[in-house]
Amino acid sequence: MQATLQLSERVESIRFPVDVIDAFLDDLRSAGYASNTLIKRRWVLSTFARWATSQRIKPADFDDTVVDAFLSRLSSAPADRIQLERRVIRRFLAHLRQRGLVSPAPLGKDLASDVLHADFVAYLQQARGLAENSIQVYGPYVLQYLRTQDTGDGQLAPSAFDVTTMRHHLLIQAADKSGEVTRLMAIALRAFCRFLFLRGKTTADMSDSVPSVRKWRQATVPAFITPEQQLAILAAIDRTTPSGSRDYAVLLLLAQLGLRASEVISLTLDDILWRKGELVIHGKGGTIEHVPLPNEVGEALVSYLCDVRPSSASRHIFLRTYAPHIGLTGPAAIGHIVRRAFVQAGFRPRSRGAAHLFRHGLATTMIRQGASMHEIAQVLRHRSENSTAIYAKVAFEALRSVARPWPTVGGAS
């Protein structure tokens, strides 16, 4: 009897505390998860707690190996059940790590690569002020390069900081890559060279030693959406649904203000200056600008924010319609919204960059109404005249409708 009692006390002492599970579920509830979803997750966590108790696993010892062991019991279970339990348990582990209740995730063998890459990303964010989507473009190229320089024990080879090694890497990669990919890779490696010099890892700035790749501007008029197409796309959106109300406001921001996808994503509730009738835009390079808020755009924002926007702790204006109700994950989410609107309207553009078609459309409409290049640059918030110069091609094409054939019959001028 005494032995049984001691065993019972020992098992009880290693049981996962109920309040830890409750705290996790409260976080999910705050993120907007439905009651039925929370019931399923509580069931999974209760099953895990009983299993952990039977295996005498202490809560502080919960890690990835424990997750794998727990899921291994489901070898013959349906795939959807395995997927559900894996998702719930791994998110629960992340929750515990975030709160310091269990040991942090172990560092992988690419420790030196990952640490240096993280430092480089922080440099792009803080020192260079790059937008998040730009960092997502350049960062992976540097990480790819660093991992080719791994010595096999998690350390970097001394030659990793040598520009000759970087040039050799660039030439190898360029053999089967497009010119645009090679150009972006070269830009990333030049920025990495400047970073290494500023961090004292090299004695000289070697960025000029990394070859650049010339980008030739195409002589074609940029693709755009006409005012008639824009109206048809907006009219096709079902604004009575939560997603339709959100998407309509997003498209108006693209069409009437010419915002970039990344700028729409970064908008927060604090960026709407209702009394001034302005919108604060967080642009490329960390720039912050105030633009007028058109009445139609303001009304669409009010309709979304007051009627359908989910309750959330997030300050971002546009949220996911399904839990967790957090800000949209990146510019690609805006592209998805635009492409879905195209499908609903039966519009099939031939070009890529769906969200940018509205921006090009705004510029094209302005130039056909007589706006100057300077005015277009102000509206689109261009920092370089070269960015606006592409729209001169629109005006050049318009001249074809008024130009007379030359030479005329008989050679008369």
Write the SSE topology:
Blueprint: H1 2-13, H2 18-30, H3 35-54, H4 64-71, H5 79-98, H6 111-126, H7 132-148, H8 163-174, H9 179-198, H10 227-235, H11 242-257, H12 261-266, E1 272-273, E2 278-282, E3 288-292, H13 295-308, H14 331-345, H15 354-368, H16 373-380, H17 385-389, H18 392-398
Antiparallel strand pairs: 1-2, 2-3
Helix pairs in contact: 2-3, 3-5, 6-7, 7-9, 8-9, 10-14, 11-13, 11-15, 15-16
Describe, in plain words, how this protein is organized in 3D.
Helix content is 56%, strand content 3%. The chain folds into 3 domains: 2-98, no CATH class; 111-209, DNA polymerase, domain 1 (Orthogonal Bundle); 227-399, Intergrase catalytic core (hpI Integrase, Chain A, Orthogonal Bundle), CATH 1.10.443. The chain contains 18 helices and 3 strands. Strands 1-2-3 form a 3-stranded antiparallel sheet. The chain is mostly helical and 413 residues long. It starts with a helix and ends in a 15-residue tail after the last helix. Strand 1 and strand 2 form a beta hairpin.
SSE-based structural type: mainly alpha
Query: What strand line-up does the widest sheet have?
Result: 1-2-3
Which sequence of SSEs, written as H and E, runs from N to C? HHHHHHHHHHHHEEEHHHHHH
Provide the domain count.
Answer: 3
> What is the tally of helical segments?
18
- What portion of residues belong to β-strands? under 5%
Distance between the termini: 117 Å
Helical content (DSSP H or I, runs of 4+):
55-70%
Number of strands: 3
Question: Main β-sheet: number of strands, strand sense, barrel status?
Answer: 3 strands, antiparallel
